[in-house]
Give the backbone structure.
Amino acid sequence: MVKSLLIGLFILIATPAVALSEVDLITLDSQGNSRDKAGVGPVVFPHKIHKENHKCAACHPKIFKAELGANNITMKQNMNKMFCGSPGCHNSPKAFPLFHCNKCHTKEK
Ligand code: HEC
Ligand code: HEC
């Protein structure tokens, strides 16, 4: 009884803290002009899924700076095996390929 009360209290306290410290979806939208020209929308990056499937150190700080808007990502760099196109990522059989534009970019504008 006391134990379940304690567990209940723990969940009550712990849950909001976890929810607040997690940005599940990060919108990457620093390249508006060239995106508009190419007809693709901003990128919505599912951070949570990536965190569940990989160690933080797989990406930070080697591939992405862990700071919102701090990475100046271009498709040329993605295609040159940087950022999203890093080895074992979206240029490999482990993940969908870079030519699936709309899996990363929101609806075309
Ligand atoms: C694996 C995810 C992913 C895929 C697939 C992808 N992109 Fe991107 N793309 C990005 C990210 C991330 C950025 C940087 C967004 C920002 O910060 O504005 C970006 C930026 C861009 C930009 C603006 C910068 C630049 O390079 O000029 C264009 C244009 C673009 N993408 C076009 C495309 C097209 C066209 C395709 C399909 C052939 C594509 N992207 C597929 C993730 C992706
Ligand atoms: C697949 C690569 C990848 C993995 C794995 C990953 N991240 Fe990130 N993370 C990113 C990207 C991309 C961004 C967005 C950076 C930007 O806005 O330019 C980001 C942003 C962040 C940010 C800044 C935004 C925020 O939420 O405050 C923090 C902090 C962060 N990551 C921490 C972590 C931690 C901690 C882990 C492990 C639990 C982790 N990341 C795992 C790619 C990754």
Notes: The chain has six helices and two strands. Helices lie at 2-21, 32-38, 47-53, 56-59, 75-79, 101-104.
